[in-house]
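Memo to structure team: turn this sequence into structure tokens by end of day. - J.P.
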Amino acid sequence: MKIKICGITNPADALLCEQLGADAIGFVFYQGSKRHIMPDEAAEIVKQLNPFTIKVGVFVDENPVLINEIVRTVGLNMVQLHGGETPEDISLMNVPAIKSFRVDNNFDFSVLEHYSDSLILLDSFDKEEFGGTGKTFNWSIIPENVKSKIILAGGINSGNIEDVFHKVKPKAIDVSSSLEEFPGKKSKEKVIQFFNKINSIRRNYADNDEFKFTP
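Reply from structure team:
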């Protein structure tokens, strides 16, 4: 199970997460987010990271031309799209895409079939926020044939990560607000505790299907 830490806004948090075992680091370029970062600031952080760490840019209904420009200037490996982006929009991306969906009890999972060329992220539904709410959703409604293919987000923390592994077994998880002191600043203690838990799980349970951050 691979780990993406999102909402990174400063080098210290990025380097700490990378050092402890994060497979991917996420930068939010949506201006309406509490964790928004400017492309030039993200580019400076990327320069300090290991080239094998995946760098992901998060966008919401942004112009594909601008997204591709930010991908190039920052040095991103993937984009994560949290708005109403269509498969046609995603086809315009110059790097692989993660398409995010906000899930409530009425979510129609058949829509995922239209995004077969993207990785799928399932997050908690919120009327006002596009992510980073710290809330979980009802994981039991995820179809069994979908669970092993997704990136799971929404309220994942040290207290429920065992349940994530045993009950959902996603390809990867995406964590942000549960590791923060406040929006945009990670708590060193929470991050260390979380990765200690993750590394314990990784030692005890071998993944049968290696997750790769490519469609």
